[in-house]
Amino acid sequence: MNCVKCKTKAVIGLPRHNAAFCKPCFNEFVLDQVSRAIKAERMFGRADRILVAVSGGKDSLALWDILLKLSYHADALYVDLGIPGYSATSREKVERFADTVAKPCHATLLIHTVQEEEGAGIRELADLINRPTCSACGTIKRYQFNRAAVEQDYDVMATGHNLDDEAARLLGNVLHWQDEYLDKQGPSLPASVEGFAKKVKPLYRLAERELAAYAVLNRIDYIVEECPMAKGSKLLLYKEVLNRLETESPGTKQRFYWGFLEKQAKAHPVPTSMAEKDQATLRPCATCGQPTTAEICSYCKMMARAKAGAPR
Amino acid sequence: MKVQLSHPARQVEIKGPKRVRELLRDLKLVAEAHLVIRGDDLVTEDEMLKDEDEIEVRPVISGGS
């Protein structure tokens, strides 16, 4: 198989684009896809300060690497969740990347440790409040990243969600007809109210396999092991099903997710509708001041329940 | 050839020569969810693997909630 651009030996075939690339042309393809995403969704500009949410996995480290290569001002935040046998390794990968790749580009790594801030790791917290670990983890990460971005005056928060993540989430939402979540499935969510950072997903045009290939080819040392808490998660099942369809019928994932985005843009041509909805329903949390639909935000409620040690 | 697999980590011996596409089929693995690595290099699905090669088949899927 040869590279479709320069005809040398290819290192990866991309059936969904009916293409194959050598390493330099594949890197160019990846950077081009991210640039197109940033531009098409008006994610951020050269002057903006970006906070990348990093986990030690391939997607978030690849995102940080790509944004630095594209000469954006991108710092990163790692939230140490205290997952036994997992968090220590992922943190080490993030710190090594920060020292060897980010620091020479004058980019900074911030670290928040849940254990230090809340007195317990994610598993104990989830047990205390009787919630699945992944859902407690999501609440903690969303809260920590948003608060750090707002408090430290970042213009935008970027996450490593890729095409597979978004297509799988869309499949889950459609299967259960959770149409109230569909509004928030876009790759660029505005800072709709005071206290909410703008959130973007610059990797939504790239498949998970392409990001893993980017990490391997560019010697990005990431954590390959699956988070032990994610075993049996529904999202993994949806991804598996979509990948079987993709292998049989290349392009399925992008037609599903990008097609949804196109239809959504046509149905709601005015992108301010979500901001208006947020402004009408959100108010500052009585405990921490971050925006919430309730009197107390879900993070503060969770921590109060955990501290009281009371089940739901 | 020696083939390193993950989730759980294990090594299996597969008789070569064999194309990457056939290796994945024999192992019942979906191409879209895996990368095949020989030494430090990625290999495409049409590549012929030799019996003496050391191969890693790396899953690329991750994610929780």
Percent helix range of chain A: 40-55%
Major sheet size, sense and barrel closure of chain A: 6 strands, mixed
The backbone outline of chain A, from C-alpha atoms, is globular
Separate helix tally of chain A: 13
Low-pLDDT stretches of chain B are none
Total domains of chain B: 1
In CATH terms, what is the fold-level topology of chain A? Rossmann fold
Helices of chain B, by number, come to 1
How many domains in all of chain A? 1
Give the overall average pLDDT of chain B. Answer: 93
The tally of strands of chain B reads 7
* Lateral strand order in the biggest sheet of chain A: 5-4-3-6-8-7
Short summary:
Chain A contains 13 helices and 10 strands. Chain A has a single domain, classed as 3-Layer(aba) Sandwich (Rossmann fold), CATH 3.40.50.620. The chains are: A alpha/beta (312), B mainly beta (65).
Description:
The complex is a heterodimer of chains A (312) and B (65). Chain A has a single domain, classed as Rossmann fold, CATH 3.40.50.620. Helix content of chain A is 50%, strand content 12%. Chain A is built from 13 helices and ten strands. In chain A, strands 5-4-3-6-8-7 form a six-stranded mixed beta sheet, with helices on both faces. Chain A is globular, with a radius of gyration of 20 Å. With 65 residues, chain B is mostly beta strands. Chain B has a single domain, classed as Beta-grasp domain (Ubiquitin-like (UB roll)). In chain B, the strands form two sheets. Chain B has a five-stranded mixed beta sheet with strand order 2-1-7-4-5, with no helix packed on it. In chain B, strands 3-6 form a two-stranded antiparallel ribbon. The N and C termini of chain B lie far apart (37 Å). Chain A binds chain B through residues 1, 10-13, 20, 57-59, 132-135, 137-138, 164-165, 168, 207-209, 211-213, 216-217, 224-227, 229-230, 233, 235-236, 239-240, 243-244, 246-247, and chain B through 6-7, 30-35, 37, 41-47, 58-65.
